[in-house]
Amino acid sequence: MSATRKPILISGAGLASLLFARSLLRSSIPFIIFERDQSISFRAQGYRLRLSLQGLDAIEEVLGPEGFPKFWDACGKTGGSKGFAAIDAITGEDVVDLPERKEPARSGPVSKEVLESRDGKTIGISRGAMRALFLEGSEAHVEWGHQVVGYELTPNGVKAVFKDGSKSEEGDMLVGGEGIYSKVAKQVSDGKIKTYDTGARGIHGQAPTTAFKGLGEGVWRVIDDTNPNGKTFVITNVRPDDMDDENIDFGWTMGGTPGVIQPPNNDFAIIGKPAADIAKSLTANWHPRLKPLFEEMREEDAAFWKITCSTPSGVPKWKNEPRVTVIGDAVHSMTPAGGIGANTAVRDSALLGRLLGKKGGWYDGVTAEYEKEMRIYGSEAVATSYGMATSQFGVLIDEKTSPTVG
Hints:
- This protein has helices at residues 15-26, 53-74, 112-115, 127-135, 183-188, 273-282, 292-295, 329-332, 341-358, 366-393; strands spanning 8-11, 31-35, 48-51, 76-78, 84-88, 94-95, 122-126, 142-144, 148-154, 157-162, 173-176, 195-208, 218-224, 232-238, 249-256, 303-310, 324-326.
- The chain has 406 residues and is an alpha/beta fold.
- The chain has two domains: 8-48 and 127-195 and 310-393, FAD/NAD(P)-binding domain (3-Layer(bba) Sandwich); 76-126 and 197-309, D-Amino Acid Oxidase, Chain A, domain 2 (2-Layer Sandwich).
- The strands form four sheets. It has a seven-stranded mixed beta sheet.
- A hairpin with a 7-residue loop joins strand 13 (218-224) and strand 14.
- Helix 1 runs parallel beside helix 4, helix 2 (53-74) crosses helix 4 (127-135) and helix 2 (53-74) packs across helix 9.
């Protein structure tokens, strides 16, 4: 790496940050990643992410011909002729025409073509596996146990400020990629970047592959609108290659309209049996085709999650800071509707990495150039995700009065 440049400082070791770091690594640009956790395995992040054509293209651009084949081999490839198929939770029957499958009018329907990204397959990988693959080669550049709470500009650079009051070495640039609670995002945008609590809640769960036999290969959405408190849905991806492997679990993601899923004491740090019990209660009257997903779930792995979304009207504009910018959920958090969030995050990584790579590191104007392009596709993605969530989850954000997180 170049010894004539100060490092690029990266806050957070999430997907966007780690892929961005890989781009810097390939361009021989020095960098340091600061992550609050003590190791990459500190938190379980096993639920699966669906990769779009644009997301895969961004990942391939960054990893290159030497790194992408390994990533591709680790991905699951789900076929089937139905694309995103819907199942009635009570009858267990396939639903052909589902109103909830519509995105906002300008985006068109959620069709098989939207789900397929390469080779006629739906491509997916667990968040944890993706994170580990992105980290490869950058391990020596991560400082674990360092939580960034802000930054301090210097005459010729920037320093990250940590929770204990200490500061990092001087860097050429700071990139905030620490998710929806990003302090870097709040500081650089002067509070303009906001993440709203939609009020909707969810549960992640896992069960042995044998529990999914009744579904068969495909990407499935299960819908239950019989609950008097609101709608419940489950999304899962049943992959053919792993269907008979007893050592592999498949995951599912449950969500509900506001008020349906309520963690005890509204504490999202609670995991295990409390989350599993609520999932089992909500699915008690579901069809036998579906019941094994919950009756055979690994109770210890169940976890609550909060459905949040950035400003629906678009990524806000703030006074540009040449030395500081933000990527991923820190700037455009999305609902799970459409599976758009991670795919947009890796586009940030590829874009910012490409710009820096062209000139071998930081240059005056790079953050403005990046933010101008990111705001366009980021705003479109948030609007699409929010529009789908409005119909699917019953969420509604008022940008003046709705509560925010962070």
